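Researcher: Next sequence.
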Amino acid sequence: MKCKDVMHVGLQWVAADASVRDTARLMRDRAMGFLLVAGAAPGQLMGVVTDRDLAIRACVEDKVPAEIKIGDIASTEVIVCGEDDDLGEAEKTMREEQKARLVVVNDDGKPVGVLSLTDILLHDHLRRAAKTARGILAREAEGPHTPIDQIKLTPSTPADEDAASRQDSAMNGRRLDGPLKMFP
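Model: Next structure:
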């Protein structure tokens, strides 16, 4: 199977001089977390931006989103694959680079699609797709974690458990409209 057989062809672009605020709104309104960043020439790929980039590179720095340009926070090292590349090779690249998306380019190097982990999970052999997912998600698993013996839990009383079981919550399929109990 080739990358072009499963890639998403509805490319979504944002101008490099667009603000972080406008880009976040675009992502929200279109329910997407990945955009290609346009360079100076039409169809020129300057980089990519994800919703994670917005959070990590803009929001956390306490900057004003309307004043930050997407080109300043976009990932400019774009990982690509060819539209005629074998899907297995693209999956290998995703695992090695720990990227959930690759930009698919034609023979001229122009973007023609995006290949995502979701595309692979929907179209590829389950075992190979799961291997790719594990490889990509390894970055998350290797992140900083508190050792289990250092996690501080606040014991609950039987009365707390009883009250919690009768309270509406998202966990049991009901809406939480009441006050929240904060634990130290």
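Model: The radius of gyration is 21 Å. Residues 169-184 have pLDDT under 50 and may be disordered.
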